[in-house]
Amino acid sequence: MITFITGNQHKVKEAEEIFQKFNINLEHNDLGYNEVQGTLEDVAKSGAKYACEKLNKPVIVEDAGLFIKALNNFPGTYSSYVQETLGNSGILKLMNDIINPEDRYAEFRSVVGYCAPNSEPEIFLGCVKGQISTEEKGSFGFAYDSIFYVEKKCKTFGELTRKEKSQFSHRKNSLKTFIEWYIENSLE
Ligand code: ITT
Hints:
By secondary structure, the protein is α+β, with helices and mostly antiparallel strands.
């Protein structure tokens, strides 16, 4: 049993979708943890260590961000703050003059932090490539999903069901890497 520490219900549902495939039980706890200033990796490591020490059981945390190339990787590690302040319409406005779809390249990155009692935290990275759409599309998903366009699907994440998004999302990639490692390492 692994406990996923997050305050975001959408993440819980997506993670459950992915864990089910591997027959691993996932429990949810929104204990919360201080997000240190630094990279996604720093946040995931320190969050996992903190939650594990607090609960004294194996935990995962997951820190994600949207990195837009034309904006020098903004909002990146400021993704939560920017979603709450500028929002998707603010991002679209910042990108008004960028016409060429290739110049609207963006990626979602996800870092899973895992920590078990009496051991040091481990991290696992996932990424998905896309473009910032010119308008918001779709009502599935959350936060940046309606402006994140995936070329091979000709749709934004907001137009994909949870099941579809969870087949190739940044979160799927980081969690899958973690789960494979976990399965290999929990064999006696
Ligand atoms: P935690 O409690 O797990 O930290 P959070 O919602 O604060 O949940 P993050 O810090 O990982 O999540 O995410 C930074 C921002 O990026 C935040 O506004 C999220 O809503 C958004 N975000 C993360 N994953 C996303 C996804 O898959 N699709 C759209 N937006 C996402």
